[in-house]
Every structure is written in structure tokens, then in C-alpha cells.
Amino acid sequence: LLPAEAEALVRALQGTELRDAGGKGWLRQHECVEKLNMHAILSTSTGQEQLLTELLVSYAKIPVLIGELISVEIWKHKIFPVLCRLEDFKPRSTFPIYVVLHHEASIINLLETVFFYKEICESAEDSILDLIDYCYRKLTLLAARSTNGQTAVLLPPQELQKQAETMEFEISLKALSVLRFITDQVESLPLSALTRMLNTHNLPCLLVELVEHCPWSCREAGKLKKFENGAWHVVPPEDQVKMTKLDGQVWLALLNLLLSPECQRKYHFDGFNKSQLLKLRAFLTDVLIDQLPNLVELQRFLSHLAVTEPAPPKKDLVLEQVPIIWDHILKKNAGKWEAIAKHQVKCVFSPTEEELKFQARRWAQTYSLDMMEALAPNKPRCGACGTEAAKRCSRCRNEWYCTR
Length: 404
Prior knowledge:
By secondary structure, this protein is mainly α. It is built from 19 helices and five strands. The strands form two sheets. Strands 1-2-3 form a three-stranded antiparallel β-sheet, with no helix packed on it. A two-stranded antiparallel ribbon has the order 4-5. Strand 4 (391-392) and strand 5 form a beta hairpin. The radius of gyration is 23 Å and the shape is globular. The two termini are 34 Å apart. InterPro entries: ZMYND10. This is ZMY10 protein.
């Protein structure tokens, strides 16, 4: 995007009503998010992402994006189940439903890309509490997946079930990265945000659960598979002890939450929390520490914790803030879930043939072939020999080759 285009898209971002999800105005907003998302990924790969972060901060759009994220999450769990129970809900196409479900993935991906910067985290202001709560809910889903082998998701029509499960898993992994970036800024977070992470949600113990069960790793037919760059890969024996990016995110978040003096003053190191944290000692092997040397400090902290009784946190008077976005949406729409679902059946999820064609043309412009190739994590491979390919068949536009 040109700087003027990026600025226009950022300025166009605005909060939408729950009942408008999937509507024409909402779809235009989704297109803005998608274009900014792709722009953020490409800009980061070339080291030119500073412009977008400045625009999001100066136009105060991070709270808007967080509000959209929470809105879609509530839609999934409050409106969609009601929608599926309605007798007259017989969508001609799953396309509008898929777009609403995908909206959450687009926003969390954009936030993951920009939250690396301290000014972005600070510009979230009070909405950071909603984002912390959101990440906590997603990490809880990951922990549940690690214990029962699947992600707890809503039950959409059969053809969307697999896509919904995969998307929920990937969204949860993005939320883990966002949370880690938030913990990087513990020194500048509002007091209530720190209290919420440490004591309301007890994130250190939840992160221990993720270290212990590692939901992005599994065994199939005797082979170890790990999830990385959007896909499951078989890990060769020599790489099985290598730390993945997701492993690193968990360990870095733990370092931030446990070694910060401010966090140590606020966290309740009671008997249960202490026993959970000491489980980490079994995972702090020399091989792991070689890959992330900062873990030596965590190892020392845990050794000290094992033989001492930390002083209880001070009983300060704390006026705890509540997440305003989540509460506002729930209060505003309480008792209206069925009415909203009926409105959406009539106005959103029964598109005409012409409306579907029009929207398909708009998406074709948003997701151009060249853009999708630039975003792909893996380079195209030759269909004959499998080496990296730079030429593509001009007829089918699908097959790649390295030489004639």
C-alpha cells in the first residue's frame, strides 16, 4: 500500500454493532482489516512497518481493533448457536459465515504483527484489559486441547466444522504471541493490567500448563509432529530438542512475569502456585538453556523459590478495573440474541446470486494472486524436481518449474 492508502484504510476503521456482523458496511470494514493485515506482514518482512504503527497510534485505532475482536468472539458464542437453531436458517452459501469467523483471525494476526512495539501496547489504554482477558480465554482453549486432544469450539454446519477447529487453534496461537508482547511491557502497563494477569487469571500457572502439555506438538504413527508456520511438520530426530517459536513465546512470557520485580511483589506465591512453578525445573535442560540463555536466570529463581518462603504480597488497596468492551457489548445486547439472529438470517445469511457474485469480485481484488504469493511462508517448488522455482506455467497459472 502507498502511504496515503494505508492512512485512508486506518482512518476508515471504526467500531461496528453486533447485529451488523456480515452486513455490507461490516464487510467493507473487514476488507480494510485484511488489506492492513497483508500490508503489515509485507512491511515487516522488509523492515518498513514503522509507518503503519505510527498511523494506528496517532489515530487511536488499537482500541477499535480490540473492540472488533471482542465483538466477533461474542457473536461466535452468543449469536451463532442461536442462528443454527432457527428453522429458517438455510444459508445458500457458507461464504458469509466463513468471512465472519475469519474476521477474528485477521484482526488477531494484525495485532500480533504490530504489538511488538511498545507504543502500540501503550496506545491500547484501558482496552488492554479486554485484550488480556481475550488472550487468557484463548490460552485456556489451548490448555483444554492439550488434555482432551481437541479444541472446544462452536458447532457450525458440518462443512465448516474442520475449518472452524483449525482456525480456533491458530487464533489461540496468535493470542499467545500477543500476550507475550504485552508481558514485554510489564513496567509500563497499568496497575490493574498487572493484577489481572497475575492474580485474576494466574497466567504463570496457565503458561506452566502449556509447557507441560505443549499443544502444538503431537505424535502420529510413532513420529513427532510440531505446528509451525501454519502447518504440522514431521520433526526429524536430530531436531526434536530444538525450541520452536511457540515454545520460545511461552518461556519469554514466563521470564517476563516471574523475574520482573514488580510482578514478584504482586504475585501470590502460595503453596499451589509454588508447586506448579517448580514443575518448570524438569524442563530447564542444558540443551534448552543453550538455545535461550536468559533461562539461566529463571533456573536460579526457581532454585531459590524451592528453598524459601516468599513474603506474602502487600495488602494494598487496589481499585480493580473491569474490561469495559466485553461488559458494554453484553449489557447492550442482553436478551436480544434471538432477535439479532433472526435479523441476520434475513439480511445477511441469505444472499442473492448477484450479491454473492459482487462480493466474490471484491474479494478477488483484495486477494490478488501476486499478493498471496508474497505472503506465502514457503517459496514455490518445481513440479518435476522439487527445487525452488521462479517460473510459473502461463496457461494454468498453478504449476511451477525451475528450468525448461
